[in-house]
Design brief:
The structure holds 3 protein chains of 3 kinds.
Chain A lengths: L7 H7 L1 H8 L2 H7 L5 E6 L14 H7 L7 E3 L7 E3 L2 E6 L5 E6 L13 H15 L3 H4 L3 E5 L5 E6 L5 H11 L5 H4 L19 E7 L3 E6 L13 E6 L3 H9 L5 E2 L6 H7 L5 E4 L7 E8 L9 H10 L2 H8 L5 E2 L23 H10 L11 E7 L4 H15 L3 E5 L4 H10 L5 E4 L2 E2 L3 H4 L23 H12 L3 H18 L2 E7 L3 E4 L2 E2 L16 E2 L2
Helix pairs in contact in A: 11-13, 17-18
Chain B lengths: L1 H6 L3 H23 L32 H37 L1 H16 L2 H12 L3 H12 L1 H15 L2 H8 L4 H37 L10 H8 L8 H34 L1
Chain C lengths: L1 H13 L5 H8 L5 H10 L6 H13 L5 E2 L4 E2 H36 L4 H15 L2 H15 L17 H38 L3 H8 L4 H38 L5 H10 L3 H29 L11
Antiparallel strand pairs in C: 1-2
Helix pairs in contact in C: 1-12, 5-6, 5-8, 5-10, 5-12, 6-8, 7-8, 7-10, 8-10, 9-10, 10-11, 10-12, 11-12
The chains are: A alpha+beta, B mainly alpha, C mainly alpha.
Chain lengths: 536, 276, 312
């Protein structure tokens, strides 16, 4: 499914060897790969809470997903786009009020105790639903988890909850932690949030703050023959230039999440022994979005928003800012989610003349100095690319007579200004599409969200029609009907432009040729790496 | 005029002065030399230097003219440096003057504050200040001067203390001059020159601090500075080194110019005082 | 004095846009208003500013540096963990720049205004004018990536299991580049102070006397001129210690050294007031200690200065 979306460039750079290896069946691969060795990986952050059951974020998963496992992981070729982990099957009831999980048997926690349905029930009710940043949305109506036997967990919901949503959310929200370690303790302050206990292929054995995390092989892993590696070391390299240099000097073997800057990829791909891979992030699509403050009179006018959409040259953004490692967006759902994606939405071609005409029509004529009005533009500081797009947008808007003043702030200040104080006219944000529009996408345009919620609609946009569709989709159990509602959702957003979707991108992995089985699932960087191996 | 004659006597200070005059000209004439917004996207991105006569130094990641950036960067870098030095010296001088002249408890209190600022690493202070208040040119200027005012304050106080005891001040007091008048007429003109000699060093340090702040992503995005150009260029240091080398050379030339000039100035002032 | 530093730092972070919870929510990719509220409660951020300042100051009196929000660990632990790395880095960089600077300063000042003096002075100035991050990156590309003589970053080979002398040698190898970058930059200051001190010393009576006695030039340079010029250099060392601590922020980030500078940067971006204040207090104490030592050295070098006269 994803092959179709790979650009010519990606194909060239991914290299034929990689494509051949991922095309092989899983079993054959598992037998042929060498085992042993230490894989050293660059990490750019050190999360203070490493528990993925509480903090479902990529920074945490990057390290913790090797130790703590979810019920199911995303997969390129599995049924429903999933491959089983701690659950072996899942089935929803017709009324959408219960989901039954069959659990894997013979699984042991790293401390030797057996894994049972009680652990799943405890994780779901005591952690995912009340504490987890994303689980609070997905499991909002979870009432009880029945455990008729040690290998069955039945989730009961008070209101219909679509199985499609649960399925799409499983890899992200369902990390299971041991009940016997957490029960009766202060969960948020439990020492096991740092010294993880899980069922995964690796155990977290050492953490030296500011230097590295050391993960060692779990000899009792439920899938015999895995993991292949003896050790995985996450080496903390906060400086962007550091990862590329360390890879070239063979001090590390892998840098994920675009730790090597895009601008350096063309050069580093020519270094012998190093491969650049743009696969393996299909389920972690980031979207480049212009957030709009609709409280501002000019921006409340649809014509002005259309003009801004026409003023942006998406081709320039993709080719120059992302150097081809992105694609132009059409709406709020990325092409990497083919289940929901609808290409038939209104699009806004790059057309400066049309943008100028729309602004004239809206009644904002150019003044004597060629300027129609001034705006405050806040690009999010999290990525090089969001900042560069801010620089570009200022120029693109100047071309149609809008003077945008850039405001540069660090992450905490940006977040406060945009999502709490609403002190912006336009902002550039990188929201993430997490497999299902209901998880973190509809919140970007839905009305009635209190101030202070990051990555949500804080622009004051309100559309009853859109709110209705979102509310209906949340309780529609039938997969086809629900999907159809989200197609309508995309059309409405692209027509009324509560925000402007510009581009969508995944990250890039750079690895030494000796690392095998890289990027073989759509969430590879944050999956368990049980089959990853090193050629000696 | 006499000062300038003195200055161009040694080759170092003559070179320093020459560099600074040239830079000042470039900075003042920037809108003429390179009209329009230096941040506008002018051509194909990453044009190599010395290949296209209309973009002699090539273009950067987004296709902005590097030469235009350097010309306009002279304006902002010098403005930031001079403004920060001016603010630091003006503030430090006032505090030092007050402390030295008032003496007693006021002196004691002010000097403790000066101590406090001197023991805190100034870059750390600037870093904290800018990330907390937000990055814009005035904030960067204030942040840099916050870390730099303590030295001039201490120096001024020392000067005031030594001048206070001199004969001409004592005689002014005897003839019944008002203390404020004494401070302004007698002490100020004599205390100022050595403090001014510090200014060049502060200008150089300010330009470098601005560059380091830009490197950490804390510059003003609406204007182009050499620091921000180097910081942006360092991401492609390996493939397009010229992007950070050209503004780097400009920065080095400026700082060296400022230093040479300040040494010359210090020597000249010392010479004049010796002659008096 | 320390109290002023603490209160000023606290007020600065208070006026910041965004607090520790904003920074944390961002790092985990978002959360709703209820999460934010309960986190603010847990860290006491919902109390008034004065109450928190008072709480902090009163625990500080008991030598308790408080709890870091961004790391969820005691500030003292973090500081103790990072301090040795920074001391090692700063100590060797200071020693190297002091040594190189004064040695070259002697060479330059032996014949003031000579071509040798001019070349040395200019080179040191150019080094001083290179932004530290740029110099650090270029050194790392040349020596670590191209020539592979030295490691690109880190304080020691990770999880190497080395101990004793082997470990010390390993750490030394990792420190060569960052120390070199810092030392090259700060060398200029020492060189210039030494040189100008020597230029002045040539005019002093006892030097003129020694020359008239026909003593060899080398002897005069080393025994009389250089010795006399060393005093302002020592004073300079004290003044520079604060600047060096600040300068290490950038170098530590480029070379991935878990030290004070990087910790401070993380504290600022995480809006972690207790941690930042802890760092500033400890570095202030450090600077005070360095200056105390320097006063003692100064007194030993120059019997004319009584310990009572020197301030810091």
């Amino acid at each position: 499914m994803t092959i179709a979306h790979l650009s010519r460039r990606t194909l060239l750079q991914a290299g034929s060897a990689l494509l051949a290896s991922t095309a092989l069946p899983v079993l054959a691969r598992a037998q042929n790969t060498p085992s042993g060795g230490r894989l050293i990986v660059a990490a750019d952050s050190e999360p203070k809470n490493l528990n993925p059951a509480i903090v479902a974020s990529n920074g945490v998963f990057f390290i913790a997903s090797k130790v703590v496992e979810p019920l199911a992981e995303a997969s390129f070729d599995g049924k429903d786009g999933l491959s089983p982990r701690l659950a072996t099957s899942w089935e929803g009831s017709a009324d959408g009020k219960s989901v039954t999980f069959k659990l894997r048997e013979g699984v042991k926690w790293h401390d030797g105790k057996p894994f049972t349905s009680a652990d799943v029930a405890f994780s779901a009710l005591s952690i995912w639903k009340p504490l987890q940043n994303l689980g609070r949305v997905v499991f909002a109506n979870l009432e009880a988890v029945d455990t008729p036997d040690a290998a069955t967990a039945i989730f009961k919901f008070s209101k219909p909850t679509p199985l499609q949503l649960i399925r799409n959310a499983l890899p992200v929200v369902s990390s299971v932690v041991p009940k016997h370690v957490y029960e009766g303790t202060d969960i948020a302050g439990n020492p096991a949030n740092v010294k993880l206990v899980g069922t995964g292929p690796f155990k977290l054995t050492e953490y030296k703050p500011g230097e590295y995390y050391r993960l060692t092989k779990n000899a009792d892993y439920w899938n015999k023959g895995e993991p292949k590696l003896d050790e995985v070391i996450f080496r903390v390299l906060p400086d962007r230039a550091g990862a590329g240099a360390a890879l070239e000097a063979e001090e590390i073997q892998l840098a994920a999440f675009s730790a090597v800057p895009l601008t350096d990829l063309a050069r580093i791909s020519k270094v012998p022994g190093i491969k650049v891979i743009s696969k393996g992030y299909e389920a972690l699509t980031y979207q480049l979005v212009v957030e709009i403050n609709h409280r501002r009179k000019e921006l409340a006018d649809l014509k002005v928003r259309q003009a801004i959409a026409h003023a942006i040259d998406r081709k320039f953004v993709v080719d120059t800012i992302f150097l081809g490692y992105a694609s132009a967006s059409t709406g709020p759902v990325p092409k990497n989610a083919p289940e929901f994606y609808d290409a038939g939405v209104p699009t806004y071609a790059f057309d400066v003349a049309k943008a100028n005409a729309l602004l004239d029509e809206a009644g904002y004529k150019k003044g004597a100095n060629g300027t129609r009005f001034s705006l405050k533009l806040r690009p999010a500081p999290y990525f090089n690319e969001t900042k560069q797009f801010g620089d570009y947008l200022r120029q693109a808007l100047a071309a149609v007579g809008i003077d945008a003043q850039l405001v540069n702030a660090d992450s905490a200040a940006h977040q406060k200004a945009v999502y709490t104080d609403h002190d912006f006219d336009l902002a550039v944000g990188p929201p993430v599409f997490r497999g299902d529009p209901a998880i973190s996408t509809t919140i970007l345009v839905q009305s009635g969200i209190p101030a202070g919620v990051p990555f949500s609609n804080q622009g004051g946009y309100a559309s009853k029609e859109l709110d209705d569709i979102i509310a209906r989709a949340a309780v529609t159990v039938d997969t086809a009907a629900r999907t159809d509602l989200y197609k309508q959702f995309q059309k409405l957003v692209a027509t009324d432009l509560p925000l402007i979707n510009v581009a969508e991108w995944g990250f890039i992995t750079v690895a030494r040729d000796s690392v095998l089985n890289v990027s073989n699932n759509p969430r590879w960087a944050v999956s368990n790496w049980a089959d990853t191996a090193l050629k000696s | 005029m006499k000062v300038i004659q003195h200055l161009i006597r040694t080759p170092e200070s003559a070179i320093g002065l020459g560099i600074l005059v040239l830079l000042a000209l470039v900075a003042l004439l920037a809108p003429v030399l390179s009209p329009g917004d230096p941040l506008r996207i002018a051509a194909r991105p990453l044009l190599a230097p010395f290949t296209d006569p209309s973009f002699p130094l090539g273009t950067d990641r987004l296709g902005r003219d590097v030469l235009a950036g350097i010309i306009h960067g002279a304006r902002t870098s010098l403005a930031v440096g001079i403004a920060a030095a001016f603010a630091a010296i003006a503030f430090g001088f006032c505090i030092g003057l007050t402390a030295g002249f008032a003496g007693g408890l006021v002196d004691e209190a002010l000097m403790r504050v000066v101590d406090a600022f001197q023991i805190v690493p100034s870059f750390l202070l600037a870093l904290a200040f800018v990330s907390v208040i937000g990055a814009s040119a005035p904030v960067v200027v204030i942040a840099i001067s916050l870390g730099a005012w303590a030295d001039p304050a201490r120096l001024t106080r020392a000067q005031v203390l030594s001048i206070r005891e001199r004969d001409y001040v004592a005689s002014a007091r005897v003839i019944g001059m008002h203390p404020v008048e004494i401070a302004l007429k007698e002490i100020l003109p004599n205390a100022l020159p050595p403090v001014l000699a510090l200014s060049a060093i502060i200008v150089a340090a300010a330009i470098l601090t601005e560059a380091a702040l830009s490197f950490l992503g804390l510059g003003d995005p609406n204007v182009v500075t050499w620091g921000s150009m180097i910081a942006e260029g360092r991401n492609i240091l390996r493939s397009s080194p010229s992007l950070s080398i050209f503004p780097g050379i400009a920065l080095i030339v400026t700082v060296v110019g400022v230093y040479l000039f300040s040494e010359g100035l210090t020597k000249t002032l010392a010479g004049r005082r010796a002659e008096e | 004095m320390l109290l002023i530093v603490v209160v000023l730092t606290f007020l600065l972070l208070e006026s910041a846009s965004g607090d520790a919870v904003d920074a944390y929510l961002l790092s985990i990719g978002g959360g709703d208003a209820a999460v934010a509220r309960s986190l603010r409660q847990a860290y006491g951020l919902d109390q008034s500013m004065a109450a928190r300042l008072w709480l902090y100051l009163s625990s500080l009196m008991k030598l308790d540096l408080g709890w870091s929000i961004a790391f969820d660990r005691p500030v003292l632990d973090l500081v103790v963990e990072r301090l040795p790395n920074t001391l090692l880095l700063m100590g060797s960089a200071t020693a190297l720049s002091f040594g190189l600077g004064s040695a070259l300063g002697i060479v330059a000042g032996a014949r003031p205004e000579s071509p040798r003096d001019r070349v040395l002075s200019t080179i040191s100035l150019i080094l001083y004018a290179i932004p530290s991050f740029w110099l650090g990156l270029v050194l790392s590309i040349i020596f670590a990536v191209q020539l592979r003589w030295l490691p690109t970053s880190g304080i020691e080979t990770i999880a190497s299991g080395k101990a004793g002398l082997a470990r010390a040698a390993d750490i030394a190898r990792h420190l060569v580049l960052p120390v070199g970058a810092l030392a090259l930059i700060y060398m200029a200051l020492f060189l210039r102070v030494m040189r100008s001190g020597m230029a002045e010393a040539w005019q002093l009576d006892f030097v003129l006397f020694a020359r008239s006695k026909g003593l060899s030039r080398t002897r005069i340079v080393l025994r009389h001129v250089a010795r006399n010029a060393l005093l302002p250099l020592v004073t300079m060392l004290g003044l520079q210690s604060a600047a060096m601590l600040g300068g290490s922020v950038v170098i530590e980030s480029i070379f991935s050294i878990p030290g004070f500078g990087r910790l401070a940067q993380e504290a600022v971006s995480g809006r972690d007031a207790p941690l930042l204040m802890g760092i500033i207090i400890v570095s202030a104490v450090l600077v005070i200690c360095v200056n105390l030592v320097i006063d003692i050295v100064y007194a030993a070098l120059d019997p004319r200065v009584g310990a009572s006269e020197s301030g810091g």
